[in-house]
Amino acid sequence: MSHIPETGHTIALIVAAGRGSRSGAPAPKQYQSLAGKPLLRWSAGLLLAHPGIDAVRVVIHADDRPAYDAAIAGLPLGAPIIGGASRQESVRRGLESIAAEGGASRVLIHDAARPLLSSALVERVLAALAVHAGAIPALPVVDTLVRGTDRVADAVARDGLWRVQTPQGFRFADILAAHRAATADHTDDGGVLRAAGGTVAIVPGDEDNMKVTLPEDWARAERLLAPRRVSRVGMGYDVHRFGPGDHVWLCGVKVPHDHALVGHSDADVALHALTDALLGAIGAGDIGQHFPPSDPQWRGADSVRFLAHAARLVADSGGAIEHVDVTIICERPKVGPHRDAMVARIAGVLGLAAGQVSVKATTTEGLGFTGRREGIAAQAIATVTIPV
After folding, report:
1. Which helix (H) or strand (E) holds 110?
2. Which of 136, 151, 299, 371 has the greatest number of CB atoms lying within 10 Å of its CB?
3. In sequence order, what are the residues at sequence separation of 6 or more whose Cβ sits closer than 8 angstroms to the Cβ of residue 20?
4. Is the pTM above the cut of 0.70?
5. Angle between helices 269-281 and 304-316 (to 10 degrees)
């Protein structure tokens, strides 16, 4: 179970227990890909990176643990909270879990289906809690509203009407007590607090903070995300010589061979190149800076650890890995029979689909040290998108 900071801290609670049937997705929408990463991961990453938030917890459906683990791989979120039969019950369970683990002074409650929240919006909600027990972001209704089915019955006055968004912020003790006392269902947590007699302020919302609900919303969300991110490309290259042994490690896969590769770690030349490519894409130095070969703790280390570390640094920067391409350069062993396993291994470590990973092999036609079968070289390219 993840640690919850002591009282006085702010926790963000992401509600991701719904089924999302209206989105048109074949599985719960919070785990479907948006611009290269799961919908849930967008809001989780921003909330984790915000300096005013000390921890992030996620409420999920009981059936979704494998999908959740894959979606948040590399993010410091910890074990999820299992939700209930309704959104309101799921939020209450989340609040109770936070209370049981130390509580908080403030909580932000956010829907996983809103991937485009901004840091400025979070700041507005948090600032309002200095004066009010609750605060919700909202946008004024500007379109004409009418009642009717297939014909207009009458118009509805739009004065004082708002479109409510999340994250909604609350003083933790107030919203926990309100949920515990609730006897009716409410469409949002501001309604729960109001029913308990609490005051809820309105702060300016954000038009881009849309909720992905219908099939056409996915394309709109992609368009809105595009200007917020830029692509970066990193390149890595590594070489290891052969020594005594009966196998080599390539892309995290043990490949039988009449020699081993010599190195301070397991000498996985392909993962070393790929790790450097990811580090280069975010300007985070090289593998030697993070895992010095002079440090005895890395002797014989599994290079998957290096790759996972680079992936975490990408995630911590708010970035997303879009595609990786590895080329292994050697005469022997043959890579082809192991290619699928290599792709699967890299994809699993990086939280990518197999189609986002390429592993290739080539020879140097007998030329150079690889042609003389003295060792193996590898080069890698990683494409990453990061916030502007």
Report:
1. strand 106-111
2. 136
3. 28, 29, 30, 113, 213
4. no
5. 10
Sketch out the chain's domains with CATH numbers. Answer: 10-215 (3.90.550.10), 228-387 (3.30.1330.50)
pLDDT tens by residue, 138-159: 999 999 999 998 899 999 998 9
Sign, CA dihedral 185-191-194-198, equals positive
> How is residue 235 written in tokens?
């390149």
Q: Which of 381, 298, 349 is nearest to 289 (CA)?
A: 298
- Whats the size of the chain, residue-wise? 388
385: part of which helix (H) or strand (E)?
strand 375-387
Burial 352-370 (b: 16+ CB within 10 A, else e): beeebbbbebeeeeeeeeb
Distance, in Å, from the CA atom of 270 to the CA atom of 214, rounded to the nearest integer, reads 42
Q: What is the pLDDT of residues 310-365, one digit of tens each?
A: 999 998 787 889 999 999 999 999 999 999 999 999 999 999 999 999 999 999 99
Residue, of 37 and 379, whose pLDDT is higher: 379
Contacts of 150 (CB under 8 A, 6+ apart): none
Residue 387's DSSP bridge partners are 229
DSSP alpha helix (H) spans, 14-118: 39-49, 65-71, 87-100
Q: Look-up: residue for tokens 């990176």? A: 49
